[in-house]
Amino acid sequence: MLLPNKAAINLLPSLVTLRAGASPLPEPPIMPQGSIICAGLSCLDLQLVGCTQSGSDEAIERYDEAVHCAGGSASMTGTTLALLLGSDDDAESKEEVHVLTKVGPDFAGNTLLEFYRRAGASTHLVLTDESARTSMAVLPIFTNGKRGCFVNLACNDGFTSDELLGRVDVAAESTASPARAFLFGYPHLMPQMQGEALRSTLQRAREKLSTKGNSVLVGVDLNGVDGSDPKAAQDVLTSALGEVDVLHMNEDEAMVLSSASESTNADGESAIEDVSPQMLSQLAQFHAQGCAVVLLSLGSKGALVSVTSDVDRLKRLSLDNSDVSCSVIGRWAPGTQVRIPAYKIAHGEVNANGAGDALFAGFCLAASSWGDDIERTLGGDGEWKVTPEVAGTFASLVAWQRCDARTRDGVGMKKAQDLMKCIQQGDLPDVL
């Protein structure tokens, strides 16, 4: 099959190091194998790279290059994790990353599938609907690294809970490795999986994937939250929060989705840099509604990790059998809140498309049973742990590599274990 813009698919030759003069990292030890399912919205993106932005609606804008890539939460999280976890040298230790989404039997759908395979993600859970069209989006990538988005959601509009759970059944029956995480993206853009339908979908997906006694982390990534009708936006998510272990959103989305009144000290100083007391009040509401961990994107300022103070909620993510890998969230200190920095791309070639998806994917990987296994593999004497700060730093490094135009497609991208070793050794890039 001929694909458009081969440069977008073929990996660009580059090399990135975390610190000049750092010693080469040894080969990572073999870890137990697991699987991650990246589900939800997908679309074929057409990126217009290097767009000018004059500010006038009728101005003729210019761009440098038109590039196709796999877009949407299922695509972005799946390809990011596949590139991060892939290993050409040791196939037996390679994690399984599965994309679970819905496409049509068309050019866009076939191109998406090829992107997934090129990144190393499995496509056997992808549902092809012979009567549907694959979603497509046009994204102007501006010279300042920010982007716009114009999308036709197509078959995402008709993607139902029953269809998704049918593919989860296939995963439970056919996937050799135990599931570490079920990641679902963009419920506000998927009308068939909202409110009670979303809650039921997440609950049943966890049940189906936990049949082997493993602890499956459930993460939800937000996008497309409409601030024009806050009540409708809240109804999409609120009833499902008790099933969400990790919820990722940005500041604007948090403000729309929270119905909490302003904090009594909203005009005072916050104990957390760059996060207002009112925002902390909003996050507390999400925890009160059952969400275990909130990962709040702060753009160029980094992120905030907020852990519920509900001990019983955290215990749901731990297992009594210490020989079985489980989510590290179950061992995190209740009520922890930590700020995570963003990292600087020294050469300045930035493409921030998918930055939030990469942050979410990296955090959920670290917070899942993979984080438990990496503790056992790298922890040595047992003193080094994947804390909220470590998981957040790992997520920020994953997003840093994804925003780097030279490494975002894989070549020069450090693998997951190498990034964890860099954190362990304090070998980090400059803060933005």
Descriptors:
13 helices, disordered N terminus, alpha/beta, 4-stranded mixed β-sheet, 17% strand, 8-stranded mixed β-sheet, 14 strands, 432 residues
- Count of helical stretches: 13
Low-pLDDT runs:
1-23, 262-266
Major beta-sheet overview: 8 strands, mixed
- The separation of the N and C termini measures 41 Å
What is the typical, i.e. mean, pLDDT?
87
CA-based shape: globular
Determine the fraction of residues in helical runs and give it as a percent range. 25-40%
Main structural class = alpha/beta
Across the major sheet, the strand order is 4-1-9-10-11-12-13-14
**How many distinct beta strands?**
14
Oligomer: single chain
Q: Can you summarize this structure?
A:
By secondary structure, this protein is of the alpha/beta class.
Could you describe the 3D structure shown?
It is a single chain. The protein has 13 helices and 14 strands. It has helices at residues 6-9, 73-85, 107-119, 161-174, 196-209, 230-237, 251-257, 277-288, 311-315, 355-367, 369-378, 388-403, 416-425; strands at residues 35-40, 43-51, 65-71, 96-100, 102-103, 127-128, 136-142, 150-152, 179-185, 217-221, 246-250, 293-297, 303-307, 337-340. α2 (73-85) crosses α10. The longest helix is centred in the last third of the chain and has 16 residues, at 388-403. The chain is globular and about 60 Å long. The model is unreliable at 1-23 and 262-266 (pLDDT under 50).
